Amino acid sequence: MAIFYPMVISAIAVLVTLVYASYLDIKDRRVPFVTWYPMLAVGIPATVVLLYQQTGQNGQAPDYSIIAGYLALVASFFYANYLDTRDDEEPFRFPYLAIVLALPALSWFALTPTLNTQLIPWYVMFAGIIGYVSYVEYKRKPEEQTRFRKKKQEPTVAETISKWYFVLIVMIFAITSVLLFYGPGGWGAPALSILLLSVFCGVFYIFGRMHLFGGADAWALIFISFCIPLFPVTPLLNYPPLGFLAFSVLINALILNLVAPVGIFLINIVRGNRAPLMYMFFGFPVPGDRIQDSWGFVMEDFEEKKGRVGRKFIGFFDSIRRMLSGEGRVYTKDLRERPQEFTKELALYKAAGTVWISYAVPFIVPITAGLISAIVFGDFLLAITGFLTGGR
């Protein structure tokens, strides 16, 4: 059995942090960013040690270029979060920008034995995008930030770029990883690790920005990728083809999460709750006058006409549209914390008698279960596929 001791230590730190984050998410439906610091403080150095050990085998010198490349990717995600969450009155941290610009330069040029000129335009593009977005953030006035966040006006071109620039940053890291895989003086096979990290983490960061994924859930998967890029030990069902732990964690979490809709459907049947079939799997009715005591998103629209309350379920595509825009979705947590902003809605819910809401088990709970099951057993989807096809 192969054992990667830095990853074992990191996995323990990640698991403890995820259990605590799950507790916070169940209790308050909020996981402060600082919650991730303990696992990152252990996991990032552990991954650096792993890269040091793996690239320094067979009498070869460790490849500091790929270590710097890994740190450059991590720093870029932290910097993106910094730009997203920087307080209006907080002075701009130029040292952060300097670090983000310096690490790729060290990785792609200074620490490589041979200069790969193909990387130069990509670094120029990287520095230009990061520099422009940082300049816009630095020059932006607090009242302009408030205006945009309240969505009273359409975003400007600069604001749109500032929101979606990270798509290009992820693409640059992915492309440079491919160039360093094939190019002169490159990383060889270890470049695939940076490629997988870039694509996987980039997708979930973007999903978080598009409101297709919870912020805490997205960061959990991103940070699992950074802290445990490969399996700490050989799982009982053996390694999946890519050997990328975070992908197996996601697959296992999705499979485990399928149990909840089936259970909700059966409970609705037993209790005699009636709704269109799809909603029977993903929600349940709660008393309208006590909706603030529940957790979930409201699945119905209400309208009062001539003293009567009309209601209809929110359609699938309309629900997706509201998720993407971040508008029009009513969360029971908002009803509880800011009731003065929802006086009309609360009155309608009370008059309606019952309101259907979606179930609200935080996805970070199946992510935690997915991590444990992936480390111990491996990839459930691979095992299921192998069973159905008669493989082993």
Identify the notable features of this structure and list them briefly.
4 strands, 2 domains, mainly alpha, two-stranded antiparallel sheet, 392 residues, 64% helix
Give a written overview of the molecule.
It is a single chain. This protein is mainly α and 392 residues long. It folds into two domains: 5-234, no CATH class; 248-392, no CATH class. The chain has helices at residues 5-28, 37-55, 64-85, 94-110, 119-139, 142-149, 157-182, 191-209, 215-227, 245-257, 259-271, 277-282, 316-325, 332-337, 343-352, 364-376, 380-388; strands spanning 283-287, 300-305, 308-313, 354-358. The strands form two sheets. Strands 1-4 form a two-stranded antiparallel sheet. Strands 2-3 form a two-stranded antiparallel ribbon. Strand 2 and strand 3 (308-313) form a beta hairpin. Helix 3 packs antiparallel against helix 7. The longest helix has 26 residues, at 157-182. It is globular, with a radius of gyration of 24 Å. The model is unreliable at 146-152 (pLDDT under 50).
